[in-house]
Amino acid sequence: MKRICFTFSVVILCCVSLLTFAASAKTIHLLMEAVPDTFYIQDLLPEFEKETGIKVEFEIVNYAQMHGKLLPQLLSPKGVYDAIVVDNYWAGEFPAAGWLERLEPYVEKTPGIKLEDYLPSMLDMVGYYEGKLYMIPFYNYTMILIYRNDLLTQAGAVIPDTVEEYVDLCSRMTQDIDGDGEVDIYGTSMMGLKPDPICMEWSNYLFSSGGDYYDENWHAIINSPEAVKATRLYAKNMHLNAPMGAPGFGFDEAINVMAQGKAFSLVTFWMFFTTLNDPSESQVAGKVLFQAMPGGVNLNGGWGWAIPKSSPDKEAAWKFISWVESPKIAIKRALQGGAPTRRDAFQAPEVVEKFAYYPLIMKGLEKAKHVPEFLYSTQMIEIVGRELSLTVEGKDAQKALDEVAGELNKLTKKANLY
C-alpha cells in the first residue's frame, strides 16, 4: 500500500512539474524577410531556446509583403508579433506614428548591449529617430561599385574619382569584341525597375555628385544643379552602356548580367560581391573587385530590431534581441556571411580570416548615407522612382526633378517638419 501511495505521489509530482513547465514555456513570433541573415539566425535558434526556454517562430516572407503584413498588427492594441525588423525606409514612419517602444530602458538594464559597439551610421539610420532609441541595428545592405578588374587591367584604366568620369569609363568598356555589330560586354549592368531598385541605384549617383533629397530644414533640394547632373548621367549610363532591358531590371536581373560575364561594372549591395566570387554561381569568380562609388558616397541601407507597442510579450522579445545582438551570436552570423552592424563582428580575427574584405566594407559604411527618414519616406521613394523612370524614358531631368521637389515639399509639410 505504501509503495502504491508513493508511486501515485511521484506520478502526481511529475504531472505537476510538466504542467508547470508547459505553463512557463513561451513562444514568441517575429515577421522576417527572406534574406540570408534571417536563415543564419534561424539555424542558431535552438541555442536561444536551450538558454532561455523561449521558443522563437519566424514567419518568413519576401520584402514586398512585409509592410502590408506589419501595418494591421502595429495598429492593433495587441498584435501577433512580439518583435519586428524595420527597414530603414520605415525607420521614420513607425516611430513617428507612435507604434514602437522606446528601447533606452531595455538597453540600460542589459550589460551585454553597448551602443558604442555599433557603427554610428547604422545607429543613425536604424537606431535613433529624433534623438530617441527605437531600434537596435540588425544588418546592413550598403551599396558599392563592383567591377571586373581583369577588364580594367587589360584596358590600362583605373576607377576614376567622379561620377561623370565613371560614366565615361563605362562607355569605354562597352565593347563589341567579335565585331558582329552586337555588344558583348556592357560598361555597366543597371536596375531601372521602379520604385525601389531605380531609386536606390540612382541615390549613389546623387550623393556622390554632392546632391541630396532635402536640406537640413526639410526643404527639397532634389532639383539642385548637382541632382540634375547626377540624373542626366544616370540616364546616359542606362541608355548608352547598359543592356537594353535594364530599365526594367530589378536586383536579380542586374546581378545575373554581371555573373554571366556580360558587364564590366555594377552598383549593388555589398553582399553580392560574395555571390559574384562564387564559382558555382558566377562566371567571373576571382575577377571582380569592389570599391566605393566614384565620388565617395554610397547609399546606406539596413534593418533594425524593434518592439511594437502592440507586442504580446515585450520582455521575452527583448531577451531575444539582446541574445541575437550579443557579440557571440553577431560573430557567428558574420562567419556565415552575414552583414554585421557591430565593429567587433566586422573586426573579429576569425571573421577577417574568412572574409578579408569585411574591414573594407566597415570603412565604407562609415561614410555611407541613407535616404531621408520621416513619416512619409515610403511615399517619397514612390514619387522619386516614378519620375526617375520617366526620365530614363526621355523626360527632361530638370522638369522631372522640379515636379519631384514640389511633391516632396508637400510630404514634409504634411509631416509637420516645417
Structural notes for this entry:
With 418 residues, the chain is an alpha+beta fold. It folds into 2 domains: 26-141 and 301-367, D-Maltodextrin-Binding Protein, domain 2; 143-299 and 374-414, Periplasmic binding protein-like II (D-Maltodextrin-Binding Protein, domain 2, 3-Layer(aba) Sandwich), CATH 3.40.190. Helices cover 49% and strands 12% of the residues. It is built from 19 helices and 10 strands. It has helices at 2-24, 36-52, 63-75, 93-96, 104-108, 120-126, 149-154, 163-173, 196-208, 225-241, 251-259, 272-276, 314-324, 327-335, 343-347, 349-354, 358-367, 377-392, 397-414, and strands at 26-33, 54-61, 83-87, 128-129, 132-133, 136-140, 143-148, 265-269, 288-291, 302-306. Helix 18 runs antiparallel to helix 19 (397-414). The protein is globular, with a radius of gyration of 24 Å. The chain starts with a helix and ends with a helix. The model is unreliable at 1-23 (pLDDT under 50). This is Sugar ABC transporter substrate-binding protein.
Strand proportion = 5-15%
Tell me what the CATH architecture of the largest domain is.
3-Layer(aba) Sandwich
What is the number of helical segments per DSSP (H or I, 4+ residues)? Answer: 19
Count of beta strands: 10
User: What is the CATH class name of the largest domain?
Assistant: Alpha Beta
Distance between the termini: 84 Å
Q: Tell me the helix content.
A: 40-55%
Q: What is the CA-atom radius of gyration, in angstroms?
A: 24 Å
Series of H and E elements: HEHEHEHHHEEEEHHHHHEHEEHHHHHHH
- Tally of discrete structural domains: 2
